[in-house]
Specification:
- This protein has about 250 residues and is mostly helical.
- The chain has a domain of about 80 residues.
- About 65% of the residues lie in helices and about 5% in strands.
- A two-stranded antiparallel sheet has the order 1-2. A two-stranded antiparallel ribbon has the order 3-4.
- A hairpin with a 2-residue loop joins strand 5 and strand 6.
Length: about 250
């Protein structure tokens, strides 16, 4: 038995698995209840049964197709919804290019622990224990702060030491802020964004100007605390003034 999709005929499940990511939306349905299941069952009934169990889990379509591919061919490069990466470093570089926003597809790498899962499936984890442990740790950070974990993973994998913003690379924070000050009209909003930016927080871990950024973030935090304290003081003073006026 063979299986044909979009004029391409597959003789085995291994070659089929390599192409699932190219039409993720289609296979998200087909792998749950389509004729491809008959083809897979004939080729390998044990893997067919694993897919049946996988389909019962509450997974996004992209993640379901990703994991189905791992079941059918566990030794593939990382493939997710139209994107194929030959190395983990390429994943990090792609993630950085989306900054300051997180990509709706790539963020699933963090949300569903796809990277550590892929490392275990391909046995990469057993020969690169330190990297596997770091990746797993960053994925856990996603439980508290998805955007920060996203950019933390991006910098860790890419090995980059410069800062990325809207698809462009800047050698340091000074060059980025200089460029933004030329483009942005609301500098107050810009300053507020940078002080709370998960991108900047992650960048500080790997940047050559690490200490300077840490001091900058600390200063922003202290300024915000001072502002909150002042606002609280003024609010209490206003309330006391109103109370005094009522008593009079």
């Amino acid at each position: 038995m063979t299986y044909t999709h979009k004029d391409k005929t597959y003789q085995d499940i291994f070659s089929l698995a390599k192409d699932l990511y190219l039409d993720s939306d289609f296979y998200a349905k087909e792998l749950r209840d389509g004729e491809v299941l008959d083809f897979i069952k004939e080729q390998d009934e044990a893997k067919y049964e694993r897919l049946q169990m996988l389909s019962l889990l509450s997974l996004s379509d992209d993640v379901f197709v990703f994991k189905a591919g791992e079941v059918l061919n566990p030794f593939m490069s990382f493939r997710l919804k139209g994107m194929c990466f030959e190395t983990y470093q390429e994943i990090g570089e792609k993630m950085l290019l989306t900054s300051p926003n997180v990509d709706s597809v790539l963020v699933q790498i963090i949300r569903y622990d796809l990277l550590s899962d892929h490392m275990k499936t391909t046995f990469f984890a057993s020969s690169h224990k330190e990297m596997f442990e770091t990746v797993s740790s960053i994925e856990k950070e996603g439980g508290e702060d998805i955007p920060y974990a996203y950019f933390h993973m991006a910098y860790y994998l890419s090995k980059k030491k410069s800062i990325y913003f809207r698809g462009k690379e800047y050698p340091d924070l000074y060059n980025l802020t200089y460029f933004l000050c030329k483009k942005e009209k609301d500098l107050i909003a810009l300053g507020s964004y940078l002080s709370h930016s998960p991108l900047l927080k992650a960048y500080s871990l790997y940047s050559k100007e690490k200490e300077g950024i840490i001091r900058y973030l600390h200063l922003c935090e202290e300024v915000e605390k001072a502002k909150n304290n002042l606002d609280e003081f003024l609010e209490k003073r206003r309330e006391n003034s109103e109370k005094i006026s009522e008593d009079i």
